[in-house]
Each structure stands twice: as C-alpha cells, then as structure tokens.
Amino acid sequence: MVSRVTRLAERGAGRLPGIVVALALVFLYTPVLVIGYLSLSPAGQPTIPIDGFSLRWYTAVLTDTRFIRALLTSLGIGVVTAVVGTALGLAGAYVIVRSQLSQIARRTIAVIIALPLFVPTVVVAFGIGRASALVGLGYGYLPVVLGHLFWVLPFTTFLIAARYAELDDRLSAAARDLGADDRTVFRTITVPLLWPALTASVLFAFALSFNEFLITFFLAGSSVTTVPLEIFGKVRIGATAFLNAASVLVIVVSAVAAGVASTLRRPV
Amino acid sequence: MSVANAPGRLRDWLVAGSPLLLALALGVFPLLTLFVESIGPGLGSENYAEVLSPLYRGALLYSIGVGVGVTAICLAVAYPITYWIAHRCPDRYRLVALVSVTLPLWLNYVVLNYAWVWILARGGVVNRILVGTGLLDSSLDLLYNNISMTIGFVYIYLPYVVLTMYVSMERFDYQLIEAARDLGASDIRVFLDVVLPRTLPGAAAATLIVYARIAGAFATPEILGSPGNVMIARLVVQAFRQYTNYGFAAALSFVFLLLVLGTLGLGALSPRVRQELRQW
C-alpha cells in the first residue's frame, strides 16, 4: 500500500491535487468560521478583531418574533416537504428502476422529474408563480409547499433510485415463493432494505427545502416569510451582528441534518 | 417481476402518477403558461423584439458568460479534488474527506454568500490581514464586483460539481496513467488523452446540474455582484414584483431558457462528448 501510494505520488499528478484539496477546505470553511466568530461580538456593527465576547445577539435573534415565525414556517414547510417529497421520490424511483413500463416511458418520466435540475430556477419559479395566479391558487403556503416538492423531487428520486438499483431481486423472489403478495413484499423486504436511503432522503429534502430561496421568493406573497427570505431581506439593508447570529443558527440546523445523514449512507 | 403483465403495468402507471403529475403540473404547465403569456393576446412578437434589443441582449450574454465561466472554474478545481479523494486519500479518511468537501451543499446559500461580505469588505478579513501585515497600504476593492460574485458562485456550486464528478473519478483506473507514463506521455498528454475522456461523463453531468442555475441565479449577484452588471434573474424578478409587463418577462425567460438549453446542446453535440455519454 505504502509503496503504491508513493509510486502514485511520483507518477500520478505530483503534489498538486493534495494542495488543491487543502486550499479548498480552507476556502469552504473560512466563511463559516468568520461568521461564527463575528456573531460573538457585543457590538451591533462588529469590527475585526471583535471587542469582547457576548451571546446577546443570539438572545436577540431568539426573541425576535419575526425571525421565530420565519423559523417555524421554514421548519414546518421543511418537514412536510421532506416526508411527502420522499414518498413521491420512492414512487418515482420504483417506476424508474423496477417498473414494467417500457424503457422509453421510464426514460421520459426520469427526464420530466429531472426538469428543475437543468431548467434555470428563475424561469421555473416565475412560471410557477404565473401558473399559480392563473389557476387561482395565488400565493401562500400551499404554492410554496408545492414548489418545494417539485424542487426536491429529482434529488429524492435519484437518491432512492441509486439504492433501489442495488437491491437483490432474489430476496423479493424468495418472499414471493413463500407466498407473500406484492404489498407484503414491499412492506417487509423493500422498505426495510431501502430504509437508510429513505432516511437520508428525508434529511436531504428537509435541508433543501429549509434553504430554498428563489422559488419561495416568487410564491410566498406578502403573508408567508421563511428564514432565507428573512435573511435576504436583511442582507440588503446591511451586514449586522443580528444577521451573523441568525446565520449561525441557520447553519447549525442544516449541519445537524447533514451530520445525521452522513452517518447513514455515503453521499454518493 | 420479469414477466410483464397487464395489471402490473397498470399498477406501475398508477404509482408513476403522483410524482409525474407533480412534475408536469409544476414543470411543464408553468413553462406552457409562460409561452402563452410571452406571445400575448394578439399572438404578436413585440415582446420578443424587445427582448432582443441591445439593452437586454447584453444581460442575456452576460448571464450565459457567467454561467460558462463559473462552471469551467468549478470543473477545473473539482478535477484535482476528486482525483485526490478517489486515488490518493487513505481509504479510512475517504468518506470524511468527501463529506467535508460537500458539507456546504446542505447549508443556505443566502447565508453563505452573506458570509463573504465580511471577508471581502473594505474592513473585512482579507483587507485587515493585507493592510495589517503591511503588504498593502490601502484596502483593495474586492466586494460588489465580478471577483466577489465569482467567488460566491464557486463557493456554492463547487460541492455539487465535486459530488457529481466523484463517481466518474472513482471508477477511473489510475493504472492507465502509469501505462501512459511508461509509454512516454507528458503530464498534459496524460490528462487530455487518458483522464479527460474517462471522466467526461461526470463532468458533463456536473455541468448539466450547475450551469443553468448559475446563469439564472438571483441571490448571489444581488448579494455579491456589482449593481451595474445585470443578470437575467434580476430583470425577471423586477418585472414580476412590479406586476407589470408579464409578457415581456415571460419572453425574456423563454429566450433565456432556449439559450441555456442551446448552449448545453452545443456541448452535447461535440462528437467526443456524445461518444462518452453513450456509455452511460
């Protein structure tokens, strides 16, 4: 192993890749650390370096009714999107991987589900906003949730499909030989085997929804506010200590979901 | 499951129904709505004529340019990163490395872009360090221009590109590099003739995922970009917010969508990419 690694180092691409990885990690984590550091400043407009440590801005954020309302809205929409989006993703994955539909039908379904990936989000969001007004749905919670479901569907579908494709057919065949009907096979064989992927999908969909900005921006109207909308509105007014503390709290929520998910399955 | 039967197929269509209905109702129907609005009640093309006036042509080209440029930077950076994780990283740490590099995927891009304001501002981290250590006499203007916007974009989309390319890179057999070296190939030849063709599907998939979203981004240029350089999303949002001229905004969206798909198509048309994608 060691000799192979050194040989690789000589013959592969030299030191460059390792250096790029180190730089990338610095690049990726510096902003998060900087915001965390600045959020501890007692001043409303922190300067670098900060003058003392205080948690007063965290208290300010957690007692700010507007922010709390946005946070509860984001969490609620996130939970609904995560659960329903994963159920729809499971249906989509089954259809793409296991169903008896023709190859063309399955491919077409996969492309339609993947639409939000390669159509610019602003076009999709604007289109959904106009379509929603056209059919009389207007703006508010329901259009936002539908928009989020549409946005997470490709991620949940392909995440579950990747695992579905690896399942051993013989297990369900054996269950059928022992007299199980389709529903029993699905409940006792397929779902338990897919469980890690399903849980990862729920968490990933939650994080996607919790952080989604543009679709929400077009569909929220004036009555609904989510955390990303709230933060975006404040960013345009200026960078402040309040915003730093709010940002850290948002990062913590997403990072917890990511941490739990990464223990469940490989991200690829 | 191997033998197809009519009831089974019917059930599969029923299962397909719910996700498909959602994707059609929120993907295809809105696009049709936009198309109908863009040609307006009189089936006219004046909306499109306006979109193609020099004023908006600039914004369209700038958006596409940003999309192409940032995607290229992300790919260039993702190659060494994925190569290192797949072929150099000790097995034990591979998952940790991959998770660390892709963690920002989970975080909020509005927040992440905002964090860069504190780093790049005149009194921000970078300038404090440069001026504080005496490397510079006065602060650099790093914020609200193309530099800060590019950094913000790469910051958000690099994890997506790394994650997508990693799969290709993991399948890549590094012994091919050794063979090429033994046959006397230079570094550049090894990359172009050995590494690139075999990892092209991953690069293509990554491009497909990030390019359209960069070109049509709204938050990043608003938070980190220059007020003078207008990207398409801002124009669409303005039209939408002012409740006027939906027809024009719809036409703009449509021309932009066609441009994005067109540029993606150009990439897919090059024979080499086609050949590689067929293996997928």
From TrEMBL, chain A:
Domain ABC transmembrane type-1 positions: 71-261
Subcellular location: Cell membrane
TM stretches of this protein: 20-40, 67-97, 109-129, 141-164, 185-207, 213-232, 239-261
Major location category of this protein: membrane
The keyword Transmembrane is assigned to this record: yes
GO terms under cellular component: plasma membrane
Example GO BP: transmembrane transport
Superkingdom of source: Archaea
Alphabetical keyword list: Cell membrane, Membrane, Transmembrane, Transmembrane helix, Transport
Entries under InterPro entries matching the protein: Bact_Polyamine_Transport (IPR051789), MetI-like (IPR000515), MetI-like_sf (IPR035906)
The UniProt record lists the keyword Membrane: yes
Membrane association type: Multi-pass membrane protein
Family statement: Belongs to the binding-protein-dependent transport system permease family. CysTW subfamily.
Protein name: Spermidine/putrescine ABC transporter permease
TrEMBL record, chain B:
All copies of domain ABC transmembrane type-1, residue ranges: 60-267
GO cellular component, one term: plasma membrane
Keyword field contains Flavoprotein: no
CDD domains: TM_PBP2
Protein family according to the UniProt entry: Belongs to the binding-protein-dependent transport system permease family. CysTW subfamily.
Signal peptide positions (record): none
GO BP annotations, alphabetical order: transmembrane transport
Keywords, comma-separated and alphabetical: Cell membrane, Membrane, Transmembrane, Transmembrane helix, Transport
Name of the protein in its database record: Spermidine/putrescine ABC transporter permease
Organism from which the protein derives: Haloarcula taiwanensis
Top-rank lineage group of the source organism: Archaea
Transmembrane segments: 20-39, 59-83, 95-119, 147-169, 190-212, 246-269
Membrane topology: Multi-pass membrane protein
Localization, UniProt: Cell membrane
Gene3D superfamilies in alphabetical order: MetI-like (1.10.3720.10)
